[in-house]
Write a structure and sequence with these properties.
The chain is mainly alpha-helical. The protein folds into 3 domains: 43 residues, no CATH class; 50 residues, no CATH class; 80 residues, no CATH class. The relative contact order is 0.06. Strands 1-2 form a two-stranded antiparallel ribbon. Strands 3-4 form a two-stranded antiparallel ribbon. The chain is built from 7 helices and 4 strands.
Length: 193
């Protein structure tokens, strides 16, 4: 698209007067002339989206509420699941074997931060439920509370690594994750069963 092509706000398309020998066409949307360099008119009517995300979601929800729409969506999901079943089974078995042999799978390395946080949180929760001992500096109840707070921090870290959070929900998770890391740094030598 040449730099001298300028769509106007009222939908009429025109070109700069610099190129006198340019071929012209008529836009089927706005009826205005445009420079024909092998591309269509770029008036606002053509680039305006047909519906917003909220409109699409409302239409999808309305279709989902009908019996035919519900059956259609379920049928599509079933077909999609059956189509991808062999590949999903292959990866599940492969990951199971790799985790059994080396303790982690190739898939875990792709999202290492999320995997480490998720596994560490689960291990800390299990330790809080099954531990018999505790450091001499704290009581048994305090030690369980520390372990649970560490687990909460690592669960927040797993959530940070696994989701795209671009709104205000990031900061509480970051604070909770930081508190869990600080407790882990302080109490790591005492993590015994």
């Amino acid at each position: 698209m040449p730099d001298d092509f300028i769509p106007e706000e009222d939908g009429e398309c025109w070109e700069d007067d610099d190129e006198e020998d340019a071929e012209h066409g008529v836009c089927e949307h706005c009826g205005g002339e445009y420079w024909d360099g092998g591309s269509n008119c770029t008036c606002q009517n053509e680039y305006a989206p047909s519906e917003t995300w909220d409109e699409w979601q409302a239409r999808y929800d309305a279709e989902e509420r009908t019996v035919g729409g519900w059956l259609l969506h379920r049928w599509w999901r079933l077909c999609h699941t059956v189509k991808h079943l062999p590949g999903n089974v292959y990866w599940a078995v492969r990951n199971f074997i790799q985790r059994g042999r080396r303790g982690w799978a190739d898939e875990d390395v792709w999202r290492l931060g999320e995997y480490v946080c998720r596994v560490t949180a689960a291990m800390l929760r299990e330790l809080a439920e099954t531990t018999d001992g505790f450091p001499p500096d704290v009581s048994y109840e305090e030690w369980q509370a520390i372990l649970r707070k560490m687990a909460d921090g690592y669960e927040a870290g797993a959530q940070l690594f696994s989701e795209n959070l671009w709104d205000g929900d990031v900061y509480p998770l970051l604070e909770k994750f930081g508190a869990g890391l600080d407790l882990m740094r302080e109490w790591l030598p005492a993590l015994l069963d």
